[in-house]
Design goal:
2 copies of one chain form a homodimer. Chain A is of the alpha/beta class and about 300 residues long. The first copy, chain A, is about 25% helix and about 30% strand. Chain A has 8 helices and 16 strands. The interface between A and B is large, with 82 and 82 residues.
């Protein structure tokens, strides 16, 4: 295509950069004082309820609110994997999602824990997330380097809100060399939570998946990936020491600084199969290179 | 200097990329399967107490814990500007900071509000932050484009944890063309909170300052800057629509996408004085260009 972006027919869910609700044209001035008009991403509150309880207000671009709510609650350990969800009601006008379950959830227990922390855009109950890891066993399996290169190339060229308006994070659920579900959000953890919500809704297993993200490989990102049962997490960005430590503890393959032919693997390298010659990987084009998405 | 970085004598506080406690060497493999050893940033919990109350556990690199605690509480509206702080006690071993005030704080009130949200690494009481804005009036004044170019050039070339290990956000308090206090953290909001804590401790006014950040110009970033009394916020990264809206409401000058000679101003352009010829601004060198710090 003339625009240098690929078709998205391989995706189950791809970004919709033309969706009117997700960006807004804003007028300003540029460095010469001339009028400038650019597209900027929306950022709006979404309050998540679990049965009768108000849980959190997340700042989000606003797409897939039901998946965001489900995935957030699941990744916080507030919904067990076997919980029967009877309804997920989104009300656009009052910016709320209510998740209803058949029986009481573990939420009341969680409330007792005071320690909480967060990544981008939503608070988290960190102690619980770490606890949840105790039961996680990530499956063995191979990750071919040719898949990693194919995924990065394809994802970077997929039309996205990032390419249109910037200031947004992307996370992509992949299988082998194929990107399946590509979510974006102003909060990086919202993008991963939306994927978790989709997986929960569609009863999709993480066992044969690879998670690709534009954000950093922090402890929270590694924990969420492991809780989703996904054995491989890859990113354009760098690592934190604790992220690496947790990945090693749970046996997750952690790949960072993926740019052009280069990457570094700091945990779970036993899954890697070097079937691609890095010298044959084309460098990233400036048009698709991410320039400080920021956080 | 041969390394292409500048001396940091102009700073009151500059990053300390060689500090042993802030990064760790980690071994892994690279894209060819060869052993690789890289420096990665630390990420550790810090639990903040206000008098007898446990408030939050933030994930931080761990420098300036006292400033982080003070700035976090101040930016959350839990400490009034005139509050008498009698002690700030940091205990490295148990990773806590306790801030003690002479009288009861507004915290009990805040607890009643359930709505909360967060940016990177710490939860926030959003409703309160918005409320706090009602009393904010940002002073008029000029921002010369020559200052913006000088700041970006200088900050990008300052030795930093980012240049050493990546995966970290930076925020810099500046006056005219001079960077004064350069904080970095794994959570972007921690970096800005550490600056707020320093300003509170040193009784420094925001009125004649410019805040420069590597992160995105979200609603939370704009609100914090306004609460600190700083009339100008500039970033390498992009905007969210709500960030722009709030900046316009409070009369804050909001400049984004600052790279090389380019930038866009989407709010408060009346403060700008175009005294530099953009064509004379050198492009960013690849060594100092930020490559997707991520969030």
């Amino acid at each position: 295509m003339a625009t240098g972006t690929e078709d998205v027919t391989g995706y189950i869910i791809a970004p919709d950069p033309q969706a009117a609700r997700l960006t807004r044209a804003v007028e300003g001035v540029d460095q010469t004082g001339a009028p400038a008009r650019i597209a900027v991403v929306e950022e709006r509150p979404l309050t998540i309820f679990l049965n009768g309880h108000e849980i959190v207000t997340a700042m989000t671009i606003g797409d897939y609110p039901e998946y965001l709510a489900l995935g957030f609650l699941r990744n916080q350990g507030m919904l067990r994997e076997d919980e029967t969800i009877i309804a997920v009601d989104y009300d656009e006008e009052i910016e709320t999602v209510v998740v209803r379950t058949a029986s009481q959830t573990t939420y009341e227990e969680k409330l007792k824990k005071k320690t909480r922390t967060s990544g981008c855009a939503v608070g988290t109950v960190f102690g619980d997330m770490m606890e949840g890891l105790a039961g996680v066993t990530l499956p063995a399996g191979e990750v071919r380097t040719s898949w990693l290169y194919a995924l990065a190339h394809r994802i970077n060229r997929t039309p996205s809100l990032y390419l249109r308006a910037g200031a947004i994070h992307g996370t992509v659920l992949c299988r082998r060399d194929r990107p399946l579900v590509y979510m974006e959000d102003v909060g990086r953890h919202n993008a991963v939570d939306k994927i978790a919500g989709w997986m929960l809704s569609e009863r999709v297993s993480g066992a044969d998946k690879i998670l690709y993200t534009t954000g950093r490989l922090t402890s929270e990102m590694v924990i969420k990936t492991a809780l989703m049962g996904i054995p491989v997490l890859a990113s354009r960005s760098g690592f934190t020491a604790w992220g690496v430590e947790i990945a090693r503890q749970v046996g997750l393959t952690l790949i960072g600084r993926m740019r052009g032919q280069r990457f570094i693997c700091l945990a779970g390298a036993e899954r890697l199969v070097w079937d691609a010659d890095p010298d044959l990987v084309p460098p990233e084009s400036p048009r698709h290179r991410r320039k400080g998405a920021g956080g």
